[in-house]
Amino acid sequence: MKLTALAGVLALGMAFAGSAVAQEKATIGVSIPAATHGWAGGMNFHAQQTIKALGERYDNLEFVLSTASDPSQQVSDIEDMMATRNIDALVVLPFESEPLTGPVQRVKEAGKWVTVVDRGLSQENIEDLYVAGDNTAFGRVSGEFFKQMLPDGGKIVVLRGIPTTIDNERVEAFQKAIEGSGIEILGMEHGNWNRDDAFEVMQDFLSKHAQIDAVWASDDDMAVGVLEAINQAGRQDEMWVLGGAGMKEMIKRVMDGDKIVPADVTYPPAMIGTAIELTALRFVSNVPVSGRFIIGSELITKDNAEQFYYPDSPF
Amino acid sequence: MTVDSATPTVPKQGFRIDFHVWGPVIALVALIALGAFLNPNFLSYGNVTNVLARSAFIGIIAVGMTFVITSGGLDLSVGSMAAFIAGVMIMIMNGLVPSMGVGWGVILVGMMVAIVVGLAAGLVNGLLITQARIEAFIVTLGTMGVFRSLITWLADGGTLSLDYGVREIYRPVYYGGLFGVAWPIIVFAAVAILGEIIMRKTPFGRHCAAIGSNEQVALYSAVHVNRVRLMTYILLGILVGIATIMYVPRLGSASSSTGVLWELEAIAAVIIGGTVLKGGFGRVWGTVVGVLILSLIGNILNLANLVSPYLNGAIQGVIIILAVVLQRQKKVER
């Protein structure tokens, strides 16, 4: 009697999810930084979208999403998830590597599944799954594009993001890629991935340098500020701008063949969705999902822009 | 003539330079000399316009902040408030485009909205402080979080962008000007001059100083303490609205990163300018000098490549402290 019931349940489970382990209830905690800039906004959007879709697809999965505006709040969020929601897995995009390493390690030690997204922890081998963008490739692809556009060399200025390892990796890879090409970097300043800061930095670059052939804005939010400063100075015909990340407005301009925005380089905020999907697979199927999953940075040009254009995303 | 322009209650000190009065000006002149020495483009028309125009947002807000601080208050919410006003303004203008069409009509409505929302936000802060009798620090810390969350929510975590057509018509409000002087600079100058007159020549200005100096004495001297306090927060709210009117045409967008730390820059400018943080004494022209000092530091660091950009914040901090030390040195704080 009992056995047949179990078999029935199993059969049902297989019918719904096509998997033998599908009936186990599981709660997945997702902890991410709040939407404090454009990229993070896109990431929040994709996290919510993915959770909604997965919640409809799998009845046995439950999700807890929390957004933190600083590292210590994120630590508290994770502790709360462990204490009150009894999560089985944690998907975390650490605000900063150092302060989050200890708390995430304790989650792992409690026997939970841990997925780390984008920003690695400062200790190795804590996480079961690591999903990240490729900052080195981001810098390299950008640098190679500059080399291709300026075969005879030229004078460029660079806007950097918030001083972090992410920014350092990108800039180092960029500098390595343009080495020996005759491209001269006139100046590098931090625009902090912020439109207003980038606008002011670019205004000052324009006052300082009479000749600028191109700008590596390294981020689409910064590119918005940079483009406005160039417009104000009336120097649109002298230079072009390469941003990064794949903001929809910028991709639209690439798609339309705007001369001053010839290309863009991806660093998709939707990678949080990849991480949540893979973590969910751990609980609804038997496919192996542990390891490292690195999402490449691709060059977006007029020819392929359409496939990167998401008009509904806030980013 | 040097002394009576600012501190009529202090006995004259003869012909010695009064650092309390001239400290910020000396710091400003030194910065200008340094900038001109480091880069020949520093004094060019383009650069001077850039620096003055980008000072205008903080400057307009800081003039209002001078009144709040002089009367013994504080407002930490102004940066978030500016972001919130910018967001509401953009959403309403975008919403009106289908019915009103693209034109100055929509922009004028947007400007009205900015002033009204600013006034309302200042009124909320002011009422909570004067009627609910909560510390200004706590009230405005709370509303700072509220406004910041509201703009994030309105923008759905992303960026609100102004309709392209409206933007093109609105642009000259930041980039255009009169006789070669950009509009933000003209508005900033007008606000500063009016502020200086109100502070020095009107009962309202004197009441602000009286309340900040000693609230009980002001009350017994028949000053409407609560009404004057409320007015300072409303005035500041309106000025935040005006600053936002100048800000929106610059990049045509608002997001949760708009106006971050503006409140601290505005407060720093007020204190650098010689207004006393505890209240009781304020001067608007000093605030203007303070704002210019803050923008010039960033500008010079960008133009000069003096130090690693990682150290920009440290240089800024040192100069802010020096500017204040210079003026406090010769004078025992009241």
From TrEMBL, chain A:
Domain Periplasmic binding protein as annotated: residue spans: 28-258
Organism of this sequence: Chelativorans composti
Subcellular location: Cell envelope
CDD domains: PBP1_ABC_sugar_binding-like
Keywords: Signal
Family: Belongs to the bacterial solute-binding protein 2 family.
Name the record gives this protein: ABC transporter substrate-binding protein
Primary localization class, coarse: other
Signal peptide bounds: 1-22
From TrEMBL, chain B:
Keywords: Cell membrane, Membrane, Transmembrane, Transmembrane helix
Protein topology in the membrane: Multi-pass membrane protein
Main location: membrane
Subcellular location: Cell membrane
Membrane-spanning residues: 21-39, 51-69, 76-96, 102-124, 136-155, 175-198, 230-248, 260-277, 284-304, 310-326
Stretches of the chain forming a coiled coil according to its record: none
Matching InterPro entries: ABC_transp_permease
Listed Pfam families: BPD_transp_2 (PF02653)
The protein's name: ABC transporter permease
Source species: Chelativorans composti
